[in-house]
């Protein structure tokens, strides 16, 4: 082989087997392209996973029934988990609880409002329902007495309280059933359960479970969107990962043969946002129906400055519900923020917000019951007295508007004429 041919063969081999060194700029561009590819792939995978979780949620909601109920005071409900048992009476001694045929505590009433009646609905949890007080001593019963003194016997106040309800289920229940009662005013009095339950680490999971009921019902997609926007703003994946960490924690301690510490209560900004937004939504739901909505923040021992009566002091020292998980201390941080955010949300949507935190501060007699959480008949009376002027003002305004509308309509009708030949001969 000639020298020229040998050199040609060696050059070909070098070109064939030796990698050609690319310029640095080209390598950087390829690296960036790979990073972009990985990022896009990750986004697509996360999006697919999020979409899968949402589809799974819809499937579960479509096939989920009402949860089992072991407490005979309640009946299972797919939408709000449970409701008061209709036509049911229980209690004993000086305290009796009587639910009417609609499952609302108090005397029988009809869904359709009678002509001339002005109707007020009070909604909330066990304090509104009237835990530890007799039927005539509930806030709703005493508020009705006060309003009838000033406005007459045609005012009706309906007790829409259900023990254990918090703001989300209060609003869902009101929209699903209580608006059907044709109220002129709706009052939502809460705060206790939103702090007691909302400060629990696992509460977002309970909200997700309640959301399944709303999705399965199918009537309130806007409430589903509201829950997702406040409690799950970064999607269901984030919630799943967070809850996975919570569930794995005790298992890890078990492996290490160490006692698992009690999860501390937390101030969850998302639960605060949910409280504000659902009550704001309640105000917006009432507006087109001509319903005046009042959102009230209820008093707690921890958040007020009431001089405690001896009975109340003993109740606080006894503990129990009052100090379970130190939730009462959390209320000191929660309540000012609940008041601020909820006031803004409700008033922006045409409702009224009232902070009743200090309503007992000048009262020396017991207003808190034996558990230092619920109220005595006197406490319910003081709350009714605080709410009465607000309700009375709105009922008078609504009556004036209604009268003016009827007057305008009657003036716009053509004058009645007597047909010819209608006169009889005498």
Describe the structure.
This protein is of the alpha/beta class and 426 residues long. The protein folds into two domains: 288 residues, Rossmann fold; 29 residues. Helix content is 51%, strand content 11%. The protein is built from 13 helices and nine strands. It has a five-stranded parallel β-sheet with strand order 6-5-7-8-9, sandwiched between helices. Strands 1-2 form a two-stranded antiparallel sheet. A hairpin with a 3-residue loop joins strand 1 and strand 2. It is elongated, with a radius of gyration of 32 Å. The relative contact order is 0.10. The C terminus is likely disordered.
The CATH class name of the largest domain reads Alpha Beta
Using the alpha-carbon principal axes, give the shape: elongated
Going by CATH, the architecture of the largest domain would be 3-Layer(aba) Sandwich
What do the pLDDT scores average to? 89
Share of helix, binned: 40-55%
Low-confidence stretches: 416-426
Strand elements, count:
9
Strands in their spatial order, largest beta sheet? 6-5-7-8-9
CATH topology of the largest domain: Rossmann fold
What's the gyration radius in Å? 32 Å
Structural class: alpha/beta
Distance between the termini: 149 Å
Structure annotation, total helices: 13
Could you state the order of secondary-structure elements as H and E?
HHEEEEEHHEHEHHHHHEHHEH
Q: Biggest sheet, in brief?
A: 5 strands, parallel
Q: CATH superfamily name of the largest domain?
A: SGNH hydrolase
Number of domain units: 2
Tell me what portion of residues adopts beta-strand conformation: 5-15%
């Amino acid at each position: 082989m000639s020298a020229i041919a040998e050199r040609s063969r060696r050059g070909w081999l070098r070109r064939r087997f030796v990698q050609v060194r690319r310029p640095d700029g080209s390598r950087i561009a390829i690296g960036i392209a790979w990073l972009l590819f990985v990022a896009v792939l990750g986004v697509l995978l996360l999006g697919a996973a999020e979409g899968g979780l949402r589809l799974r949620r819809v499937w579960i909601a479509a096939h989920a029934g009402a949860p089992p109920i072991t407490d005979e005071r309640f009946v299972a409900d797919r939408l709000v988990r449970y409701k008061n048992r209709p036509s049911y009476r229980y209690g004993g001694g000086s305290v009796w609880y009587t639910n009417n045929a609609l499952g609302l505590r108090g005397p029988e009433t009809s869904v359709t409002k009678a002509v001339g009646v002005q109707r007020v609905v009070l909604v909330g949890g066990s304090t509104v329902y009237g835990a530890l007080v007799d039927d005539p001593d509930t806030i709703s019963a005493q508020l009705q007495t006060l309003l009838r003194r000033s406005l007459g016997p045609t005012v009706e106040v309906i007790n829409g309280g259900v023990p254990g309800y918090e703001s989300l289920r209060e609003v869902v229940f009101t929209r699903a059933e209580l608006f059907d009662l044709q109220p002129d005013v709706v009052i939502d009095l809460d705060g206790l359960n939103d702090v007691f339950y909302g400060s629990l680490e696992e509460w977002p999971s309970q909200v997700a479970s309640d959301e399944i009921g709303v999705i399965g019902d199918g009537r309130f997609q806007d409430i589903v969107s509201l829950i997702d926007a406040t409690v799950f703003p970064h999607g269901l994946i984030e919630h799943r990962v967070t809850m996975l960490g919570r569930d794995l924690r005790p298992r890890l301690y078990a492996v290490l043969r160490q006692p698992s510490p009690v999860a501390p209560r937390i101030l969850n900004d998302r639960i605060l946002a949910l409280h504000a937004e659902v009550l704001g939504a309640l105000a917006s739901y009432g507006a087109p129906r001509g319903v005046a909505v009042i959102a009230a923040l209820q008093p707690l021992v921890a958040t007020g400055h009431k001089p405690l009566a001896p009975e109340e002091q003993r109740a606080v020292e006894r503990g129990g519900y009052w100090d379970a998980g130190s939730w009462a201390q959390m209320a000191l941080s929660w309540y000012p923020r609940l008041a601020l955010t909820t006031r803004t949300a409700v008033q922006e949507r045409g409702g009224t917000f009232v902070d009743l935190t200090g309503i007992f501060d000048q009262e020396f007699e017991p207003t808190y019951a034996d558990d230092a959480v619920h109220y005595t008949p006197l406490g319910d009376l003081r709350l009714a007295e605080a709410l009465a002027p607000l309700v009375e003002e709105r009922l008078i305004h609504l009556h004036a508007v209604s009268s003016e509308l009827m007057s305008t309509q009657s003036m716009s009708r053509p004058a009645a004429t007597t047909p010819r030949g209608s006169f009889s001969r005498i």
